[in-house]
Design brief:
Largest sheet: none
Structural class: mainly alpha
Helix content: 55-70%
Number of helices: 16
Shape: globular
Strand content: under 5%
Radius of gyration: 19 Å
Distance between the termini: 15 Å
């Protein structure tokens, strides 16, 4: 039997502790949507193939950008191979318009949350999460800005999901900035993350890079002294990845600073139950490219 514990603030340095904790608590609540059977049912109703999750994934996640082309989606998502993105975008908009995808997305989340959570008990958490999300700065953050323009739902459990989603895309946009500052291109970002043991290399294959592209990126990192001959991170490589994560936390801090320590702490308490329900659902993979599978 697996035993889960809500992430503690003491797990990371206190200057970024609350920021990191809130990410760990909110990310599973957001990610449920990509794996829930209700989402695949709604995707199938729109006309998307459901033999794999990618046709609906690219539609769900890119829809706030409007009918974006593959270059814009690949740029915003960053870690996916442009060739992989091009297999699903713009074909996604030939199946359904972004507005229809967004409507189906909320229906899927509504059904998923009602099946897994006590949706009658999330009003306070939803209100606090929305306050944090509305304080998120969106300059230079395309995915966060796109979500910030969407109207808020009326139901508190949908507000909670929307807030979690906006906040995770806000963090993700900042993470891309940190990777760019560190001089890590999209495939190098994955290779360097695998090198520090965030997840096995096979997990990162889902991002569509070829073996040749992966090997070339490893060679580039080795030339910089960031990985050794076997592909493991060197001390310099670990230091660079730690700097990327530190900078990511700093760039994600503004919404939580605006919410304040007391309200952020209260939200963390309130999210314990939903977090356990999300993790305990069995829908989320234990190993993933975000490096949060060990919660």
């Amino acid at each position: 039997m697996r035993v889960f514990a809500v992430p503690e603030v003491s797990e990371v340095p206190m200057d970024t502790a609350r920021v990191r904790q809130m990410w760990h608590l909110l990310e599973p609540l957001h990610a449920l949507h990509y794996y829930a059977p209700e989402s695949f049912e709604e995707a199938a109703a729109l006309g998307y193939g459901t033999g794999e999750r990618w046709p609906s994934y690219f539609a769900w996640r890119a829809a706030p950008l409007g009918p974006a082309g593959p270059a814009r989606v690949a740029a915003a998502f960053y870690s996916f191979s442009p060739a992989m993105v091009a297999r699903y975008v713009p074909a996604a908009w030939e199946v359904a318009a972004p507005a229809d995808v967004l409507a189906a997305r909320l229906r899927a989340v509504d059904r998923t949350y009602r099946a897994l959570l006590d949706v009658t008990g999330v009003q306070e958490a939803a209100a606090l999460a929305r306050r944090a999300a509305e304080a998120a700065d969106t300059a230079g953050r395309p995915l966060a800005a796109a979500h910030a323009e969407l109207p808020w739902a009326d139901a508190p459990h949908l507000v909670l999901w929307q807030a979690a989603t906006l906040l995770r895309e806000h963090r993700g946009d900042g993470h891309v900035a940190a990777l760019l500052t560190a001089g890590l291109d999209p495939v190098e970002a994955l290779v360097s993350f695998a090198a520090v043991g965030a997840a096995p290399e096979g997990v990162f294959a889902s991002r569509g890079w070829s073996g040749e592209e992966w090997a070339a990126a490893r060679e580039r990192l080795a030339a910089r002294g960031l990985v050794d001959a076997g592909g493991a991170a060197t001390p310099a490589g670990r230091e660079l990845r730690a700097e990327v994560e530190r900078r990511t936390d700093e760039l994600a801090a503004a919404p939580w600073a605006a919410l304040g320590p007391d309200s952020a702490g209260r939200l963390a308490e309130l999210l314990g139950g939903p977090w356990l329900a999300a993790i305990g659902s069995g829908l989320l993979p234990s190993e993933n490219t975000l490096g949060i599978g060990k919660i």
